[in-house]
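Notes, p. 3: input format for complexes.
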Amino acid sequence: MYGLQTDWEIEAAPRECTLDDYRGTEARWCPGCGDHAVLNAVLRLARDKQLPPEKTVVVSGIGCSSRFPHYMATYGFHGLHGRAFPVAEGVRSRRPDLHVFVVTGDGDCCAIGAGHWVHAIRYNMNLTILLLDNNIYGLTKSQTSPTTRLGEHSNTHPHGSPLPPLNPLSVTLGIANASFVAQAADWNPPHLYATIRAAYEHPGASFVRVLQRCPHFTDHVYLPAREDRERLLLMEHADGVPVDAATRAKFPNRIAHDPRDLAEARELAGREDVYPVGLLYKNDEALRYDLVTAQGLGMAPADKLEAVERAIERFAL
Ligand code: SF4
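Output follows (317 residues plus iron/sulfur cluster):
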């Protein structure tokens, strides 16, 4: 397996793909589960970008959201708990021609997968990472996850979670070499789509935390934000997530935020009165480890060689 794969140079005949070309088996999440909205957004993105299904890979770990690869007619890898990142990094290293998505949950990413999460952000390989955060282990029927709020009841803590939750945005913004950090809510499909699209278009590890409804176990968690639109704070900037006028109008609470301002991004991420949605942070200068691994395996595309050399030079400093 080690060495240059050559079959990826074979191109399929051009054709127009429709949504049906990307749909896998019927999604079996609960009715009303926010995972459906994320799946629809990714299906639309694949269609709009005309991603060849045979050149697209969805990698997941374990959990409700990690059933995602089954529901797309692309390549997929439904892996081990917390291990989506290293699998995706391996795919990215070996096959720079593929479009790689990582779908993970709060239990999967922020608990057993936390070490891999930290390094995936630092490696900044070209991955579109979707963290579907429903504040609970849903697949295994309600155990406290790292993002479960203080005092929330679950099967593991029937008297209430004894610890404050981890904030996935603050953690990601604290990792060296982070290059794209955003947030969206599953119940606003146009904004969710625009955010995932911006993440896909970013050349590096783009991390999107999706506020994801779990009507079965934690419906109450995001209910205030669903009922009161003031609870979502739309971050606006020319370099942020582009939204049309109709989508913008759905967010009466808005703030100008330059996504290059890391200090302000951290401040916004830490707010507890609102959920900031849109692009918190972007760094187009962040180094990419996949360019280095690509060269190491003799696989760097010719037009990337200069960037690879620049990156290696900077690594050596
Ligand atoms: Fe979705 Fe919750 Fe049902 Fe899992 S248990 S499929 S997260 S609604």
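The first strand starts at residue 56 and ends at 60.
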